[in-house]
UniProtKB/TrEMBL annotation:
Annotated TM spans: 17-39, 190-215
Entry superkingdom: Bacteria
PROSITE patterns (UniProt xref): HIS_KIN
Compositional bias annotation for Low complexity: 259-269
Enzyme class (EC, first level): transferase
Record domain Histidine kinase: where: 242-470
GO molecular function: ATP binding
Name of the protein in question: histidine kinase
E.C. code: 2.7.13.3
Source organism of this protein record: Marinomonas arenicola
Alphabetic keyword roster: ATP-binding, Membrane, Nucleotide-binding, Phosphoprotein, Transmembrane, Transmembrane helix
Stored Gene3D superfamilies: Histidine kinase-like ATPase, C-terminal domain (3.30.565.10)
Catalysed transformations (reactions): ATP + protein L-histidine = ADP + protein N-phospho-L-histidine
Region annotated Disordered, chain positions: 255-274
Length: 598
């Protein structure tokens, strides 16, 4: 709940992106304005250079070259003969200027910048110059009589050349003036845009300053609200702690009262007294759950680790559910992998809460069959930190049932990674229930992980990976009896899940277990142990084999809840009953007493 309030009170992420957007707009506006100024300046300069260099300059060069050609012809005399192409060279220089004015970009600019008069003048000048080239060949041959005619023609062209140059210059100047006016208009628009941009930036800066001021005020207010919420959680934790403190002694008094005396004093049956104790246990467990949830909500739940026996604690946990298994006829078995150390450092109180809730969930979703608890080493990597000489490792607790599976809606909520939700506490409690909510949060608090698998009408399995410490100073050998010679066992059951765990339990005792299957192939076997959970599998022939095995020193164990008649089941005379939950310790004691005595 505290996390949810903090998420709601904290400033929205959109506000941060808004500030980033304003900063980006500010920078882009400055870059755009600077680019517009540079672009306008470069465009104006490029336009002027192109006009002068490509049109006006070429027209002036043409005028100058025509004067040079005329001056060359005027000064020509007989002493200059033979010419050897000198006259053609001067003429080619003049015509190259004409070609530049008529063709390419220069000709395009002249036709576009000036009127039709300029084009006509250029055509007239070109025609006269081409006629002059006819007389030029005579002069090259040494006949100077054509010089007067050529100079006269060139002098007559002088007016046209001057007029052409003036028209080109006027057209160019007009174009430059138009370009300057257009550039001035553009620059004026740019200045207006710059003023608008600066005004916008000023407005945005004002909004940013105002927003930052409001943000600081909201931040202070949020901090005050968060502190108030934390104070509320602390007060709630204190109140619940007071309730637990006041109610726990009365509940523990009920639990500590002997069943016989309670029945006599109240005038009720022992069954009623047992039910009262069971209800008191469940009430105490519920109070503890609420207490842990409130403490986790206030972030004040501390883990208290102790070094204890894993086997002893697990045996105590599973026997709490003995009264809930009998009405449904469920069979609960537990198995601890021998690879795990017997003494570990762990918060056993939280492990108990996790196990009890997962077992309660398994019993609720199982109408018949069996439930197993398998404690084994985990494949996950342990934490890297260390404490003194202790070593960290991971264990896995798997709880599996043969029930009808979890509801689809519940599976959907469990698979939605509830611990990553912003309002995780409310989602967990409302959608998956108080018990599973507590499990998920406790596992997360202990630095572990929890997963599940469920199939309709097949069963459900939860597995929890929890880190633990191995205490080097409290290492004890596991007290497990092992048969000196390997024994053979036969299990009469249809529940393969139950048979698998019975086989693992017996395997630690050096007993090879097999499953009963119909047929005469078991009659010739030498069996040292018979476990019966479903007597309807026993045929008259099989019953005779069991009696023969008993005669040879075999041990027969059967479920004490089975309604068997010694008259119809003669093997019961020397058989022993077993009770579920069936733990390794319980089975070990029974096997040890029998085979050591025999």
């Amino acid at each position: 709940m505290l996390t949810r309030f903090m998420q709601k009170l904290s400033p929205p992420k959109l506000q941060h992106w808004y500030l980033y957007g304003l900063a980006t707009f500010f920078i882009s506006t400055l870059l755009l304005s600077f680019s517009l100024v540079i672009y306008s300046s470069d465009g104006s300069q490029a336009t002027k250079q192109r006009i002068y260099e490509d049109s006006l300059w070429n027209s002036l060069q043409f005028q100058l070259q025509s004067y040079r050609f005329l001056n060359y012809l005027v000064q020509l005399d007989k002493n200059d003969l033979p010419l050897n192409g000198a006259a053609y060279a001067q003429y080619d220089l003049l015509m190259s200027r004409v070609d530049l004015l008529r063709n390419g970009e220069v000709g395009y600019l002249i036709r576009g910048l000036t009127g039709g008069r300029t084009v006509r003048l250029l055509n007239i000048i070109t025609g006269e110059l081409e006629l002059i080239s006819l007389n030029l060949s005579k002069i090259e041959e040494g006949d100077l009589s054509y010089l007067n005619d050529m100079t006269t023609r060139l002098k007559r062209l002088d007016n046209q050349v001057n007029e052409f140059t003036v028209l080109v210059s006027q057209g160019t100047n007009k174009y430059i003036a138009r370009q300057r006016r257009a550039l001035g208009d553009n620059l004026e628009r740019v200045r207006i845009l710059m003023v608008c941009f600066l005004a916008s930036l000023f407005l945005l800066c004002f909004c940013i300053v105002k927003g930052l001021s409001v943000f600081r005020k909201n931040q202070k207010k949020n901090q005050q609200l968060v502190q108030e919420v934390q104070d509320i959680h602390d007060e709630k934790a204190k109140i619940l702690a007071l309730v637990v403190q006041e109610t726990r002694p009365q509940i523990q008094a009920l639990l500590g009262q002997p069943s016989s005396s309670a029945g006599k004093s109240n005038g009720s049956s022992p069954t009623f007294s047992t039910n009262v104790k069971e209800s008191a246990n469940e009430l105490l467990h519920t109070i503890n759950m609420f207490s842990d949830l409130v403490l986790m909500d206030a972030q004040k739940l501390n883990l208290v680790t102790t070094t204890e026996s894993l086997q002893k604690n697990l045996d105590d946990y599973v026997h709490i559910f003995a009264h809930k298994l009998q009405p449904k006829g469920l069979k609960l078995v537990s198995y601890i992998d021998p690879a795990l150390p017997s003494m570990i450092n762990l918060d056993f109180k939280r492990i108990k809460e996790i196990l009890l809730e997962l077992l309660q969930n398994a019993i609720s979703h199982t109408s018949k069959g069996s439930i197993s608890i398998h404690v084994r080493p985990s494949s996950l990597a342990p934490p890297q930190n260390s404490n003194g000489g202790n070593r960290f490792a991971m264990l896995q607790i798997a709880i599996k049932d043969t029930g009808f599976g979890l509801e689809n809606s519940l599976q959907k909520h469990l698979r939605s990674s509830p611990l990553t939700q912003n309002d995780q506490h409310s989602i967990l409690q409302s959608d998956i229930g108080l018990g599973l909510s507590l499990c998920y949060q406790l596992v997360h608090l202990m630095g572990g992980d929890i997963h599940f698998s469920s199939e309709p009408n097949t069963g459900t399995e939860f597995w929890v990976d929890i880190p633990y410490e191995t205490d080097q100073e409290h290492t004890e050998e596991r007290e497990t009896f092992v048969c000196s010679l390997q024994k053979r066992a036969l299990i009469f059951t249809k529940d393969m899940h139950l048979a698998q765990f019975l086989r693992m339990q017996l395997g630690d005792l050096n007993i090879e277990a097999g499953y009963y299957s119909e047929g005469p192939h078991h009659e010739e076997e030498e069996i040292d142990l018979v476990i019966i959970t479903e007597p309807d599998l026993i045929s008259p022939e099989t019953e005779a084999s069991i009696l023969q095995w008993q005669k040879n020193g075999a041990l027969v164990l059967y479920d004490h809840l089975l309604e068997l008649d010694a008259e119809h089941c003669p093997y019961l005379a020397s058989a022993q009953s077993i009770t579920f939950p069936l733990t390794q310790s319980q089975l070990n004691i029974r096997i040890r007493h029998f085979f050591q005595r025999s």
